[in-house]
Design goal:
By secondary structure, the protein is of the alpha+beta class. It has nine helices and nine strands.
């Protein structure tokens, strides 16, 4: 028995076939015939599909019309996953023109929403019983959903904590999180030793606390972190002349005074108690050598040992270079490296990499100790 929709499609197919034959006989050119033949083929395919499904109609001669036909199936329940899929697609598009992190977040949302939607649609067709369908979906999705949701919630809370910590000052951070820890411990003790408290109340308090932390983190992140002063090093202060200064600077504060015995060094430079500077090469050295030879373009570790009673630094004078100023003028400045101040009996390591040979400059290269006359050693780079 043909349904009404099947009859209409069959008739349309016949008309399209007749029109294709008539057009091909009466008109020149194959394009119109090909178009009508394609329309007849498409209509025929639709008619065949409609006959197979019987237009989703329920007939009286069906043995089990209520349970088996498409018209008797329950409509899928509305879900939020299509909206999540659309949001993920938008975030992916924004990430393509803004930042890689935004693109990655959008891709995660897109894949997650797509997987959830697919699982929900599959479970809806597992049976005619919605309760059974929900159980089937829970068995498949919950083992993956719960760990991922927990990890995401923990990550968001930790990130919110970090924004608050960076926003507060050092002292206020200690005070705030000390108070927070005490309050959290008090609530946990109250809920643990009070059996009359319902689980819903506990969940509500935890949810409100988590939302409060997330809101505080969002506000702190929007306001920005506190100003953190970076600790400058002697390498950063070298252009300002710190390597010629025997006095203590910010780069010398809390500098290490010890070096591991296993450190691979090219030479050890010692400032002796009589304020003379000597060098001991790690390996065979030419007899009577008064200079230190270092390879070019390779990093060399040099130990500086201070045996005097005053804090001293070892400095390297490595020629000069031209630097363009803000006004466009070019100025030639000295290139220097140095250790931080080494206390009496202290040892410090410095890594030196020299790109140009020493003969490229008229005065060559040298090592010296600021504030100590005559404490100087020639540095040869072939």
């Amino acid at each position: 028995m043909f349904t009404t929709g099947s009859k209409l499609l069959i008739g349309s197919t016949v008309v399209a076939v007749i029109a294709a034959i008539a057009y091909g006989v009466t008109q020149e050119g194959p394009l119109g015939t090909i178009g009508l033949a394609a329309a007849a083929l498409a209509l025929g395919a639709l008619a065949a599909a409609n006959i197979y499904t019987r237009d989703a109609n329920v007939f009286l001669d069906d043995p089990y019309p209520v349970e088996t036909t498409a018209a008797a199936q329950q409509a899928p329940r509305p879900v939020v996953w299509p909206l999540g899929l659309a949001v993920g697609a938008v975030i992916v598009g924004v990430g393509l023109i803004t930042h890689q992190a935004v693109f990655i977040v959008g891709l995660i949302v897109l894949l997650g929403a797509g997987a959830e939607w697919t699982t929900t649609a599959w479970a809806e067709r597992a049976s005619a019983d919605r309760a059974l369908n929900d159980e089937v979906r829970a068995r498949v999705a919950n083992p993956l959903e719960f760990p991922l949701a927990g990890a995401l919630a923990i990550a968001v809370i930790i990130f919110s904590f970090s924004r608050v910590m960076l926003w507060l000052s050092k002292t206020n951070t200690v005070i705030a999180f000390g108070v927070f820890g005490v309050v959290l411990l008090a609530f946990a003790f109250f809920f643990a030793y009070n059996p009359r408290v319902k689980s819903r109340a506990v969940v509500s308090v935890v949810a409100v606390g988590a939302l409060g932390v997330i809101a505080a983190g969002a506000a702190a992140g929007a306001d920005g972190p506190r100003e953190i002063n970076e600790h400058e090093t002697t390498e950063e202060l070298a252009p300002e002349g710190v390597c010629d200064d025997p006095e203590e600077t910010e780069g010398d504060e809390k500098a290490s005074q010890r070096v591991a015995a296993t450190a691979a060094v090219a030479a050890t430079v010692t400032l002796n108690s009589d304020e003379t500077l000597t060098v001991a090469v790690n390996g065979p050295a030419p007899e009577g050598a008064t200079a230190l030879d270092l390879p070019r373009s390779n990093p060399s570790n040099i130990l500086f040992r201070n045996n005097t009673t005053e804090p001293r630094r070892l400095s390297f004078d490595l020629g000069s270079e031209e630097v363009e100023l803000d006004d466009g003028e070019v100025e030639e400045i000295a290139v220097q490296l140095c250790t931080s101040l080494v206390e009496e009996g202290g040892v410090q390591n410095i890594t030196v990499t020299i790109a140009q040979p020493s003969f490229a400059f008229a005065d060559g290269y040298r090592m010296f100790v600021p504030g100590v006359d005559g404490a100087e050693i020639e540095l040869v780079v072939p």
